[in-house]
Design brief:
single chain; mainly alpha; two-stranded antiparallel ribbon
Length: 124
């Protein structure tokens, strides 16, 4: 039975690995020193059993984008993990006309927070 369960989740694991690989190519992963310096201000995801911090959450001056604290609060209130929030940011959503939240972090942060409050709070 375990082999069947492993085979059933294998496509999902492969899709997740591909998403992290694309994200790493697109924004890079923050250096360990930056991650240590900023600590809990950053979202972290487990990639190959190592916690990585996506580079999209940092501004040009090396500090976290102000929107990140707001998104973390919305996600925590809705019971979402860091990984879930990062996955949400990397995924196109109809709430944003098919755009990804990550693409609007700098140019439309208020809109992204509004959408996060709507989208992350949905109970299925």
């Amino acid at each position: 039975m375990t082999g069947d369960a492993d085979a059933a989740v294998a496509p999902a694991r492969a899709a997740e690995a591909a998403m992290w690989e694309r994200g790493g190519r697109e924004w890079g992963w923050l250096e360990d020193a930056t991650a240590v310096r900023l600590g809990d201000l950053l979202l972290g995801v487990d990639v190959d059993r190592v916690t990585r911090h996506p580079g999209f959450q940092i501004s040009a001056d090396g500090n976290p984008l102000p929107i990140m604290a707001q998104l973390r609060a919305v996600a925590a209130n809705a019971g979402w993990t860091d990984e879930g929030l990062v996955e949400w940011q990397l995924s196109p959503t109809t709430y944003l006309g098919g755009s990804r939240p990550v693409d609007l972090l700098a140019t439309g942060p208020d809109r992204v927070v509004d959408v996060a409050e709507q989208d992350l709070g949905i109970q299925w």
